[in-house]
Amino acid sequence: MKFIKNKNLIKIKLLFLIVLFSSISIAQNKTSWEEVDKLKFDLTEKTRRSTLPTEYKLYKFDYNSFVQKLINVPQRDTFRGVSDVIVSLPNPNGDLVAYRILEASTFEPALQERFSEIRSFVGQGVKNAADIVRFSISPYNGISAITRSTESKTTFVIDPYTMDNSTFIVFDREKLLNLMAILFVLQKRLLKNLAQLLKDLVLVF
User: Fold this and answer.
1) In whole numbers, what is the pLDDT of the chain averaged over residues?
2) Which comes out higher in pLDDT, residue 195 or 20?
3) How far does Cα 179 stand from its chain's mean position?
4) How many C-beta neighbours within 10 Å does residue 160 have?
């Protein structure tokens, strides 16, 4: 009788452990990103940007769930091996790319300890080692990231879009540079036309 009781107790404990590990696995696999339809985006929300790239995507970002995945991240300066801490970041194509992460603080140790909520990381693509990411997180700005691919020669940027850090913009940096070049040309033309107009007015009067 005692043997049966102990056997049932073991089964209950095993069942509890299975449920626990399943819950942890689901929590870890839950994505922190949700794409937002730009056409349906609430334009009443205050945004941080006065200009936009020619092409971009918007994402809702769950800061808390993302930070949970960065617990026990190995330190780049002291770790030797392959990190098992993996997070996913979106690219402008709408794909979530997985990276193996190492912590790479840019602060002095004393300053990092004082501002422990501000942290910096580096990562390497899980599927493609040519994909490199650098990002920082904090409760004040959410996340800021730059991802580079030495293979495709592209640089993607992830930055806060709304003032409340709930929505983020993801774009190819080249698209922003192209837009700035277009604006520069338009500005030059505008100034040239304005100068000509003033010259004509002087001649008239």
Assistant:
1) 78
2) 195
3) 22
4) 20
pLDDT tens profile 106-148: 788 888 888 888 999 999 999 998 899 999 999 999 999 999 9
Cα distance between the two ends of the chain: 114
Is 133 exposed, middle or buried, given 0-12, 13-18 or 19+ CB atoms closer than 10 A? buried
Q: How far is CA 145 from CA 4, 132, 158, in A?
A: 56, 10, 5
Going from the C-alpha of 158 to that of each of 2, 51, 92, 162, 168, the distances in angstroms are 60, 15, 9, 12, 7
Strand partners of residue 137: 119, 143
Whether 180 contacts 173, CB under 8 Å: no
Residue 92, judged by CB atoms within 10 A of its CB (0-12, 13-18, 19+), counts as buried
CA 105 distance to own-chain centroid: 17
What is residue 75's DSSP assignment? B
Confirm if 112 and 104 have CB atoms less than 8 A apart.
Answer: no
Residue with tokens 């300890």: 113
Which residue bears the tokens 């929590």? 27
Instruction: Read off the pLDDT band of 189 (50, 70, 90).
Output: low
